[in-house]
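hi! just following up on the protien thing from before. the input was this:
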Amino acid sequence: MSIPVSFKADKPSVLFVCVKNGGKSQMAAGLMDKVAGDSVTTASAGSKPGSSVNALSAEVLAEVGVDISQNVPRQITREDQEKADLVVILGAEAQVDEVEGTLYERWETDEPSERGIDGIERMRLVRDDILERVTTLHTTLTTR
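and the predicted 3d structure came back as:
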């Protein structure tokens, strides 16, 4: 990924997207907020949003001090993408029509269920994978 020389606003902006905006993209935005504080603007959205945040996603984020339990999934908009410096698409399923002037990156996140790991243990592994990626992205965005 190439980071822009300048950002669209006074600090970098990242939009995290997954299909339902109830799990991975909500987790990524919450974890980026925790890692970055005020140094990065974050948002999340879904290509086909569900009706609520995944309860296990909220539970494993609460374990690391992040509360997404009251968040509401929402539809991605063109405006969201135009505001963002970078759109991170989590997983293979979400499809996004790219907007000129915005960078896009797809994260093929860990999927423990493919190894027979489900429930809370699965979600902890997903969280830890996303946290590692978010931490690296934050460093990339804020080190110039």
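Residues 61 and 67 are 6 Å apart (CA to CA).
The chain is about 35% helix and 15% strand.
cheers
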